[in-house]
Amino acid sequence: MTSLALSVEEAAAQLRVSRWTLYKFIRSGQLKSFKAGRRRLIPASALNDLVDLLMEEAA
After folding, report:
1. Pfam families, from UniProt (predicted)?
2. Which element (helix H / strand E) includes 35?
3. Per the confidence metrics, is the pTM higher than 0.90?
4. What is the pLDDT of residues 4-57, one digit of tens each?
5. Which residues, other chains included, contact 42 with Cβ-Cβ below 8 Å and sequence gap of 6+?
């Protein structure tokens, strides 16, 4: 089953970046996230949006 939201660690592993880099994307507004209690979660769809954005910037 595919997760709707990923932890910071899971999202960083999916993108193959460090947690620090992932938080940088969140702080800059490039990656959407939300808080659930004390946990920060990233919607799975937001990872695709970030990759698309980074591809556009690279072109």
Report:
1. HTH_17
2. strand 34-36
3. no
4. 999 999 999 999 999 999 999 999 999 999 999 999 999 999 999 999 999 999
5. 5, 6, 7, 8, 11, 22, 26, 31, 32, 33
